[in-house]
Amino acid sequence: MTHRIWEMSYDEVRDYLDNCGSGVVIPFGIVEPHGPHLPMGTDTLLSLGISERIAEKFKWLVAAPLNYGINNTLAIYPGSATLDESTYEQLVSQIIESHIRTGFTHIVLNNGHGPNHNALETAAKRLNHEYPNSRIFLIDWWHMDSSAREQIYEGKTEGHAGIDETAAVIYFFPGLVKKDKFNMKETWIWTEGFRVYPAPASCLLRDNESAPDFDESKAKAFMEIVLESIFERIQSALDGFEKMGQSLF
Question: Could you tell me the residue range of the domain that residue 66 belongs to?
Answer without folding.
Answer: 22-234
